[in-house]
Write a structure and sequence with these properties.
59% of the residues lie in helices and 6% in strands. The longest helix is centred in the middle third of the chain and has 14 residues, at 21-34. It is mainly alpha-helical and 66 residues long. The chain is built from four helices and two strands.
Length: 66
């Protein structure tokens, strides 16, 4: 059984995109609005990949390093 992460956090977005933490939080908020999610719901790696156009394997590789 592997413990593979499913959701992405602002810290991940910050390091992946080279943006500040505050900008990453804003991007997460924008994505939640775009997907019709509440503030307490999570954004999945797949949703992040689709929204930003970044290859899902690149996102998974980055998030698995943590």
């Amino acid at each position: 059984m592997t413990n593979e992460r499913v959701c992405i956090y602002a810290k991940d977005i910050s390091t992946l995109l080279g943006k500040s933490y505050k900008q990453a939080v804003r991007l997460l908020r924008t994505m939640k609005d775009a997907y019709g999610k509440d503030a307490k719901q999570y954004i999945t790696l797949e949703e992040f990949s689709k929204y930003t156009g970044i290859n899902i394997e690149t996102v998974r590789k980055h998030c698995s390093r943590r």
